[in-house]
Amino acid sequence: MPNISDLTGGFQALRVFTSSGTWTKPSGILKVKVTVVGAGGGGSAWDSGDDNAMGGGGGGASIEVIDVSSVSSVTVTIGAGGAGSSTNANGSAGGTTSFGSYLQATGGGGGSRANASPSASAGGVGSGGHINFTGQKGSGGMIQNVSQENNMGGMGGNSLLGFGGAFMPYGQSAQPGTGFGGGGGGRVDSNSPTGGAGSAGIVIVEEFT
Predict the structure, then answer these.
(1) pTM for this entry
(2) pLDDT tens track for 142-161
(3) Which of 7, 82, 97, 103 has its CA 20 to 30 A from that of 134?
């Protein structure tokens, strides 16, 4: 496995994948530096009592330098952002992003809707790279008392290249994750609330001769 310091050839091009596809090696390319980010998890929602609307976890990430001198193409898979939950349900987990079998990053966990103070939703995990990152956990909502009008939905977790949806007061729309791999925020509202969606993953391929 090459080291990052092995990138002694000239930089040629940057390829960015925001949807699944195939990376095809251009003529003369010998090494690539690849960054993958998993998708963010969706936030949860609740509408009564002292329950808690958590934000979704941020996607994991991984970076690797790959010798592609004997490679012609690699399958690229982009994880989809997790959906925000409907009323009184958990958000959906974000999808896994990968560059063939070389490296991958799982998506953040969906935000949990649970009574009072649930544990934070997990961030995704990168693996296979020279450098691997775990996404930030989603935050629990701010519960001041059983009167939901004084409470706030939780904040989504950040990723290497994305930000989680912000804390939002009662009755305000949950904020989606932004960038790539940000977790969706939670929502507190008595009128059929929906959690914020996580943002999708990304693959960045830097090509060198």
Answers:
(1) 0.90
(2) 766 555 566 778 899 999 99
(3) 7
Quick: pLDDT tens for 80-135: 999 998 878 889 999 999 999 999 999 999 998 765 444 558 999 999 999 999 99
C-alpha 151/C-alpha 138 separation (Å) is: 17
208, β-bridge pairs: 11, 31
Integer Cα distance of 122 and 137 in angstroms? 5
| Token code pair at residue 100 | 């063939």
Measured in Å, how far apart are the chain's first and last C-alpha atoms? 17
Report the C-alpha dihedral over residues 111, 117, 119, 123, rounded to 10 degrees.
40
